[in-house]
Every structure is written in C-alpha cells, then in structure tokens.
Amino acid sequence: MSNHMLVSIRLITDDVARLAGFYEQVSGLPVRWSTPDFAELETPAGTVAIGSTRTVALFGAGSARAADNHSAIIEFLVDDVDAEYERLRPLTSTFVAAPTTMPWGNRSLLLRDPDGNLVNLFTPVTPEAKAKFGR
User: Which of 32, 39, 93, 103 is close enough to 20 for a disulfide, judged by CB 3.0 to 4.6 Å?
Assistant: First the structure.
C-alpha cells in the first residue's frame, strides 16, 4: 500500500498574476499567494499551483518551460457546464469546444488558459458518470 497522494498540479508561467486571475475567474475560487512568484488555487480535490519561471532554477535550470504543455488537460467538475459556458463567454474567447456530451457520459466545455494549457469544465450527465462522481 502506497502513501503517495496527489496534492497539486503545478503550472509554470512567465506571468503568475495573469494565470492566477484566469483560474480565479474560471473556478470562482480565490487564489492564495505565497510570494509574487507562487500562488495556489485550492479546491476540495486538490490544488492548481502556479509558479513563475523564476522558480524553475530551484528544481534545476531548464527543468520546466512556461506555456509549453501539449498533453495535459486541467479538469474542473462543475454543477452545470452549460451555465458555466454562458458565464465565461464574455470573459474569454479561447474556447476549443462548446459544451458537448462525450461518449463516457460527461458534458464537457474545453478552453485554453492564457498560456495555452487545455482546461475542461465538465458535468456528468449519464447515470454511470453521475455515479462515478457521486452526483
């Protein structure tokens, strides 16, 4: 049995304030600032950490690059994805796909954050998907 627990996903950016502001708008949750180079958006399930490119040297020079993700999707479970789409339409124009019901039972809205990372807001709509998320 492992004691490993996923606690956060960290995004590296050249503009922490811009990215933090985006995630505050999308989630409706406040960002907590530790330093001007590091902020966290805490949700009940985990944290989106946002670090400046200036922090990368602490882990090893060149170990991460800002705005260079092409494989991960940051996902938020929401009560009503269609209502979120209407709420966000005036705030951003970076939608990849309008709300669409996926074969696995989630209705999903896909957009990009200011650094180009994919963000998925979704609502389970089938009985199986609702059961998976306790809805």
Answer: 39
Q: Alpha-carbon dihedral of residues 14, 112, 34, 12, nearest 10 degrees?
A: -40
Return the residue matching tokens 């966290």.
40
What confidence tens digit (pLDDT) does each residue in 30-70 have? Answer: 999 999 999 999 999 999 999 999 998 888 888 888 998 88
Buried b (16+ CB within 10 A) or exposed e, 1-24: eeeeeeeeeebbbebbeebbebbe
Q: Given the DSSP bridges, would you call strands 8-13 and 47-52 parallel, antiparallel or unpaired?
A: parallel
Distance, in Å, from the CA atom of 73 to the CA atom of 60, rounded to the nearest integer, reads: 25
User: What are the structural domains of the chain?
Assistant: 1-68 (3.30.720.120), 70-135 (3.10.180.10)
